[in-house]
Amino acid sequence: MADITTLHYLVVAAALFVLGVIGVLTRRNVVIVLMSIELILNAVNLNLVAFSHMWGNLHGQMFAIFIVVDAAAEAAAGLGILIAFFRNRETINVDEIDLLKW
Amino acid sequence: MPWRERRLISALFVITRRNAVHSALALIVTLLSVAGLYLMLYAPFVAGVQIIVYAGGIMVLFLFVIMLVNVERSSKERQFNRIWPVGLAAACALMALFVSALVKGRALFPERLVKLSEGTNTQDIAKALYGDAGRMGQYTFALRSPHCCCWWRFGSGDYDEEKDLKPATGF
């Protein structure tokens, strides 16, 4: 088997990112859209840690820890908004959350 | 390499399952395998943070919310958008762009320039976060562990052996 270079990690991170993008664009369930956003954040983290490994210093890992903390806060905020909305409208389909339309 | 394929297959399960609980469990598998990949990249602290915060905190929060929000009704409806081919085509174009950019520039990503040390990774990250990252690192992680706070106080080396490092007596 060939050596696992940094390029392999970057391609895998790109694939994870694109799968997350497909989930965000395609699904109608809001919770699954939020989980796809977490996939995207993980792909970015993987990219950062792979580059940190390549350069040999810890900057990428530090930034990755910041991103994990930020993703936790954002997931909590997004799910709170979702629950507040669900209490009013009884639906979690993105197609039916259209209060701002005409 | 088992981690790579498992992560991509479980990520595929995340976005295609009808039941939201199945998607959450597939996402947990994805996050755990990404943590394994961090271990391969000589980053044990980031792997630990990932498992504890992401798989142990955020995904539990997701499962609670799925429990609170009605799951049975939404799992009987149509799962994908009406314009899902457009989204899929756009994402495939994005993937083609990424792969072409990465493969064309593969000379920019050499294997490993400087070897990271794995045994002292946590101490190095603490020293970097509290020293090099400046005020942002200190304020964000001020409530972390006593070890990190000790680095904050004593990291620069200007402590007095007699006064600062001897245990307190005479209570």
Provide tags for this entry.
heterodimer, A: 102 residues, mainly alpha, Helix Hairpins, 0% strand, elongated, B: 171 residues, Four Helix Bundle (Hemerythrin (Met), subunit A), 8 helices, extended
Description:
The complex is a heterodimer of chains A (102) and B (171). By secondary structure, chain A is an all-alpha fold. Chain A has a domain at 30-96: Helix Hairpins. Chain A contains 3 helices and no strands. Chain A has helices spanning 6-26, 30-55, 59-89. In chain A, α1 (6-26) packs antiparallel against α2 and α2 (30-55) runs antiparallel to α3. Chain A is elongated, with a radius of gyration of 17 Å. The relative contact order of chain A is 0.13. With 171 residues, chain B is mainly alpha-helical. Among the domains of chain B are: 1-75, NADH-ubiquinone/plastoquinone oxidoreductase chain 6, subunit NuoJ (Four Helix Bundle (Hemerythrin (Met), subunit A)), CATH 1.20.120; 117-154, no CATH class. Chain B is extended, with a radius of gyration of 23 Å. In chain B, 25% of the residues are buried. The mean pLDDT of chain B is 76. At the A-B interface, α1, α2 and α3 of A face α1, α2, α3, α4 and α5 of B.
